Structures are given as C-alpha cells and as structure tokens.
Amino acid sequence: MFNTIYRVFLHGIGSSSVRIISQFPESRFVQLGTFASAATNKSKPRLENENQENFTVNYLMNALGFSPEKALSASKYVHFDSTEKLDAVIAVWKSHGFTVEEIAHMVKRSPSILVCDPQKTILQEIEFFRSLGMPESDMVSIFCGAPNIFRRSLEKQIIPSYNYIKSLFESNGKSFGSLKRLAPIFCCDLRSQLLPNIEVLREAGVLESKIVELLQTQPRTQMVGRESFKMVIECRGS
C-alpha cells in the first residue's frame, strides 16, 4: 500500500496539495496582522491612516523599487510613520548578502516581515543558518523561497524542526543535502503539522526512506494540518 501512497504524493499530490495549501497561504500571518491592524485602525483618525499608508507606499517605491500598485497592496498589511526601523531591517539584509531585488521579492510575498525585530529576529535567524556552514547564497535562497521563516520562532520552531529533520534523514542513511529545497519545512509547525503528518504516512504504511524522499522533493506537502493531510491520503490512496 505504501507504494500507492508514495506515488500519490510523489506524482499526484501536486494539484491536491495546492488546493489545500491555498487555504493556508504563506501570508496567513500577514492576514492576521491585517485583522489586528484593522481593529486598531477603527479608533484612529482617517487622516492619520491615510498619512501612514502614503508614507509606506512612498517608502516601498523609493527603497525597494515597488510599483505603485505593489506598494499600495503591501501597505494594506503594514503601516509605518518613520523610516528608522525599516532602514534597520533592510540594512541587516543587505549586510548579509541580500540584494535589493531579493529583499523586494521577500517583502512582496510577506509584507509583515518588515515589522520583525532587526536584531532579535532577523539577524539571529540569519546567523543560525550561517552557523550550519552553508554558503551565503544558499542562506539567501532559503529566505527568498520561504520569507515567512522570519515570522517563526527560532527557539520554538526553526531549531527543533531542523534537528528533527536532520535526525530523520541521518537515521535513514540520507545526506541532508541542500537546505534550499527544504525551506518550506521551516514554516511548518513541528508539533501541529510536521510530526502529525509524518505519523499519518507511517500509519498508512509508507517506509521511512520514502517519507524522507517526499520531504526532499515536495516539502510543501507538509504545510497543512493533520486532518487535511490525512484527507488527501484517504481520498487519493483509496
């Protein structure tokens, strides 16, 4: 049976996973931030909101080369009235090998990463991946591929996920290989997504070596909750 399940994931899960994953986009933290921002903005004068939006739009256009349309879209999720923190965030990225184009790419995908603490969050996460001995270009590729990693806790999510996946690979005689392809894994919650989903595969009879291969080739399949993940297996594997 595991061969059937494995073929489903390796060759056929693409469309199904996209449909499910689209319900849990990488920008979900942005959407939560938007909700909170909207609730707060009800009590703010309309003029103040407009001034913040205009400031954010102008900043994104001037600093990151956003088009007016992209800048306006991003400004719906984040509001600023000073360049100080924005400049600090962008400076950290630039000092660690990110080009303006790569920074713009990340912000377009996940505008709320601009509100991350430049030292306690962005710098610490960059330093963690650099400490693994990877080239700077690979580290940049990881964050460009999954910028919402910056919205995850280093201690509570990123490091535990890294340690678990590394152990899983090594216990099956697999080289950890390029972390670039595993970037989406670090956006998964270890306890509510990754561990339960791997357990679903085990219960379905999928061999450990095949689970590792799935993680290597299609890590985004793990970016859903257990019930949605299980539903795909039951529908496709039956």
TrEMBL record:
GO biological process terms, semicolon-separated: DNA-templated transcription termination
Region forming the signal peptide: none
Keyword set, alphabetical order: Transcription, Transcription regulation, Transcription termination, Transit peptide
Alphabetized GO MF terms: nucleic acid binding
Family: Belongs to the mTERF family.
Name used for this protein in its record: Transcription termination factor MTERF15, mitochondrial-like
Lineage: Eukaryota, Viridiplantae, Streptophyta, Embryophyta, Tracheophyta
